[in-house]
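Predicting holo structure, guanine bound.
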Amino acid sequence: MQLIDGKATAAAIKAEIAEEVKTIVAQGGKQPHLAAVLVGHDGGSETYVKNKVKACEQCGFKSTLIRFEDDVTEEELLQCVDRLNKDEDVDGFIVQLPLPEHIDEQKIIMAVDYKKDVDGFHPINVGRMSIGLPCFISATPLGILTLLQYYNIEMSGKKCVVLGRSNIVGKPMAQLMMQKQYGDATVTICHSSSKGLKDECRQADIIIAAVGKPDFVRADMVKEGAVVIDVGTTRVPDASRKSGFRLNGDVKFDEVSPKCSYITPVPGGVGPMTICSLMKNTLAAAKKEYYK
Ligand code: GUN
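Done. Tokens:
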């Protein structure tokens, strides 16, 4: 069994990005600039955004954090998106999800200029991705694909099961794994209503677990020699930690890992790659790689 080290891979890619930024700036170009909008004080979102800001520093990007309280109105948030769309110094920006119940998430996503949509959530980017056109690709699926490529893991013609059908991970992941230019695999998506989910998993060469249920994938669901990618990051109480919690993946690691050819740990697997992909997308936005 080989552990897939997302932390080290992300660090190597961020170092490459930092080198490129140095060259751009040395040649008189503009420093890439990512803005992040954070609403409320959800612990998970606070951590993700803090890590995104830190990654910007590591890559030599400028970053701006815009905070709102939980009671922000949809109108105020839309005005903020509009300002960022028009701000010529901002190359790309994200609105951290989830948003409070009284705000229509889809309305906010649709308001973002797709040319600055480094999350890849706007329907134009989602649609372009699904027909194989250049675009911003959702950071978690892109990070997973990058990891699989980095470790030279064979995907073409393999049977891949994606567990979960979210807009952020499951759906774009299945799309990427299926397309000839990316995974070129045979893909099955399983979700909470799927019958025979265990049997589907048992036949899979690659399992990508993104259901948000701690320890959902057990040893009896995994074929000998399978590649297992764990996207789960549920906070579970842990009195032995200073924070009072630990991050738990969707895969019961101790049980599953002996059967795998490759497996990602939690933390240190997919998480750092997600942030690294956001940095890649921001650099692409600054270079106007996909859109003029
Ligand atoms: N919430 C969970 N994942 C993400 C992400 O990739 N981007 C944003 N904006 N919010 C998230």
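The chain has two domains: 27-125, 139-270.
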